[in-house]
Structures are given as C-alpha cells and as structure tokens.
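Structure in, sequence out. Go:
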C-alpha cells in the first residue's frame, strides 16, 4: 500500500510537470471540473456553456468573447481514451428540439474537449498570431465528491455521524427498524448483510428525494457496474460494540475500508487530482423549499465539499497524491430563472452565506473563490401581476408536469440570509413566517439566431471567473 501510494504520487508529479511545461510552451490546457448535488443542473450547465462558447452572441461578460479575442471554437476528441465522452450533441438536441425536454442527469464521469483559437493581446500577440487553448470539461456526480471526506474517517467515526444524521430525518425510520432487528456481533450472514445494505440505500434514496444533500456513500445512489458487489454491501452500525472476527460488524468495517481503497481513492487519483478549475452547482431554492433541516444539511455539505478540494498547500488530501492545485472554485446557485431578477441578489447572498466558512478556508489557503446565482438555460420570462391589491414580481413558463403555461410567485427571499440560516442551524423543522414554493419548469422552445447560444442568466460571468484569465 505504501509503495503503491508513493508510485502514484511520483506518477502524478511527473504528469503535472509535463502538463505545465506543455501548457506553457505549446497549447495551454484548462481542466474544468463540473459537479453538484442532485438536480443542480450539471448536464444543462455543460451543454449550455459549450454551446455559448461555440456561438458567443450571448457572452458579453466573457471578456475574450466581447473583445473578439476568441476567433473560433470547435470540439475535438477528448484526451482520456478510457473516459466516456460527454454527449453534448444529444443533450443540446434535447434542449433545442421542437418538443424541448431536460436531458438525462449525470450518472458517471464524462469528459469533453473544447478548443478555442485565441488572439493574444499586445505586441507579442501581433507577432505570434492566434494560439489554441484547450478546455477539458470533466463532469462527475457531486455524490462522489462528498465521498472524498470518507478518506479521513474510520468506519466507527463514519457510522456515528451517519446514524446521527439519520436520527434527525423522518425518512430514516425504515433503516432504524432494520437496524433494531439486526445483531452486529452475530456471525456474518450474507443475505442479512444485503438486506441491511438495501435498507440503507433505500433511506439514502428517500433522503435525497426529500432535499437532503449529505447522502454518503455516493456510489450507493449511483452504483454503475459495482451494483451488488461486496464493496457496496455495508451500512452504518452502532459504533459502541466489539469488532469480533467473523462478525457482521467486522465485515462491514472491512468493506468500508475497501470502498475507500478501491472506489474513492481511484476516483481522486484518476480524475479529481487533475482538475485546476472547479464549479460546484447548488440547488439552493430546492433546499429552501424542503425546509430548515435540508438547508442546514446543505450548508454542512458545502463545507465538506470544499474540504475535499486541495486549494493552496494545506488540504488534507495533499498527503495522498501530488497534483495540481485547484486555482479557482465557483459556487453557483442554479435555477435563478425561477425567480424574478429583483430577487437574484438575495439568492446570491444566501449562496455566499451558505459557503462562507468553507470559502474563507479556501481563500486563506490561496484559492480564488466566488459565489453567484445563475441559470445555465433560461426557461422562464418575467411578468408582474396584481394579487389582492399587491403587485407581485413573477416568472412564467411551461410547467414540467402537464405542459401548461403558468405564472408563479415563489415567495420573497429575505434580504438578510441569517433569516434563513439561523433557524436552520437552530434545528427548526419549518419556516415560521413564510412559505417558499417551488415550481418545476420545462425548457422553453427556442428560436436561436445565427451566432447565438441558448439564453441564460450570468453564464458569461461564470465563464469569465473560471477561465477568463487564461484567454
């Protein structure tokens, strides 16, 4: 194990040096990681970003697009032959068809290379002519990112934390009943172990549907070809018992360590450690709608997520492998088009407050961070309606369920984010003075002019923060 870790570290160091030299002397490469938790809109974000970099008519906030420095953009074969290609064409077709619909969500790692021909500024640019900058976009599920925090935990520590979360969630009743009927110190019985793991997986699935963010281990929700394997057949047990040889507890502990070794570490080594820019997409409105417990769970998840990055020199994963430092991290609250623009500042403020502790640690370590509210694809228009003597700023669009057009007022977000975060931290189960509704909109039919990408909100500003300095 030690020799293997040393070898991996040396390999990663050589790759990093090679990438740095190649980028400086030939064609620079920006590796942009895109992740987020369930329903945050990763697939739509990547699809719209690429489409708007190919046709830059809606990207005035990206300086290189506004001043004409980007001469052309085109897709190329991705550099990693063993990683699935992000199916950009199918996803764009889903959003722009005569009957537009949301594309399928992220279920595994995928990648896409977009190459930009950029004219450098200044005297050197006039002499050298355009150069090529490659943007390698790596898409991966946010549930897998949360798993990186497991590397710093033992089975007992993880079990204690998982069971504590479960106790506060109504959806945990089923697993609590299954756990009460189990004997952790009994000799391992594989059917009983599978039943307990299945009950825990059902709980995680229900918790995610209820709006909770911290649902580890992430591969239980997205198992892929690991479905049914022993490495996914474990669950948290009360940590106060003895770990006897041959017992259910001992075997679950062994499988937990195997999960970290065989699933989590390879993901970090092969994909995550090579990222140098990152966007984390967050469905803040969904968490607010689900209530204070979901919002507090999201805040803790954001802190755990940033702990998994390696900003600067001091992140805990630096001891495992050598690699690039994450230089910039964007936390983006998605679905800003579900609110009238008059409330976008409040949504951005809540996003900033949710990540304040985590972002302060990243900034201190040397990484540049930003928080903003965006909509990668605008699915609504704005309107103002009279209701019981009040003028309400609303959005309207085609409802996902039923397809009819509707105007919607979600409630007014507070000017001070503490009005939401304090009740969440204090364990309130419901908002005391307001209801925050949510509506699921389908994508609108699009008529795009030549040179225009799909309509969005602040996607150009997100791109400027993430890659603008390299263009």
């Amino acid at each position: 194990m030690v020799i293997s870790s040393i070898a991996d570290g040396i390999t990663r160091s050589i790759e990093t040096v090679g990438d740095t030299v190649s980028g400086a002397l030939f064609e620079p490469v920006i590796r942009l990681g895109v992740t987020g938790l369930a329903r945050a809109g990763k697939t739509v974000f990547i699809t719209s970003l690429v489409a708007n970099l190919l046709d830059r008519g809606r990207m005035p906030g990206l300086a290189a697009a506004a001043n004409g420095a980007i001469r052309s953009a085109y897709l190329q074969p991705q550099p990693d032959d063993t990683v699935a290609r992000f199916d950009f064409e199918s996803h764009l077709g889903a959003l722009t068809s005569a009957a537009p619909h949301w594309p399928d969500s992220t279920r595994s790692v995928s990648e896409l290379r977009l190459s930009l021909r950029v004219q450098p500024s200044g005297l050197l640019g006039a002499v050298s002519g355009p150069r090529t900058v490659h943007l390698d976009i790596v898409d991966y599920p946010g549930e897998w990112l949360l798993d990186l925090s497991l590397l710093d935990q033992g089975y007992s520590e993880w079990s204690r934390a998982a069971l504590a979360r479960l106790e506060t969630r109504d959806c945990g009743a089923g697993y609590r009943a299954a756990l009460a009927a189990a004997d952790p110190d009994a000799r391992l019985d594989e059917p009983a172990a599978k039943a307990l793991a299945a009950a825990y997986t059902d709980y995680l699935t229900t918790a995610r549907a209820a709006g909770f963010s911290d649902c580890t281990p992430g591969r239980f929700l997205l198992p892929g070809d690991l479905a049914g394997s022993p490495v996914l057949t474990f669950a948290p047990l009360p940590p106060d018992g003895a770990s006897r040889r041959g017992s259910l507890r001992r075997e679950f502990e062994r499988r937990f360590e195997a999960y970290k070794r065989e699933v989590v570490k390879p993901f970090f080594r092969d994909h995550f450690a090579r990222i140098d820019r990152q966007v984390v997409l967050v469905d803040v409105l969904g968490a607010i709608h689900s209530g204070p417990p979901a919002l507090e769970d999201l805040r803790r998840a954001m802190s755990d997520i940033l702990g998994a990055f390696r900003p600067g020199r001091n992140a805990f994963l630096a001891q495992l492998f050598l690699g690039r430092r994450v230089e910039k991290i964007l936390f983006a609250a998605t679905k800003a088009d579900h609110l009238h623009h008059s409330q976008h500042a409040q949504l951005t403020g809540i996003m900033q407050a949710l990540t304040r502790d985590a972002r302060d640690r990243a900034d201190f370590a040397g990484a540049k961070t930003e928080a903003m509210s965006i909509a990668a694809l605008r699915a609504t228009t704005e309107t103002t309606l009279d209701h019981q003597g009040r003028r309400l700023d609303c959005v309207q669009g085609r409802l996902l369920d039923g397809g009819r057009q509707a105007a919607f007022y979600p409630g007014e977000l507070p000017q001070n984010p503490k009005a939401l975060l304090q009740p969440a931290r204090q364990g309130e189960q419901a908002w005391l003075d307001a209801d925050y509704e949510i509506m699921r909109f389908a994508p609108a039919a699009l008529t795009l002019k030549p040179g225009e990408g799909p309509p969005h909100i602040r996607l150009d500003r997100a791109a400027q923060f993430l890659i603008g300095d390299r263009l």
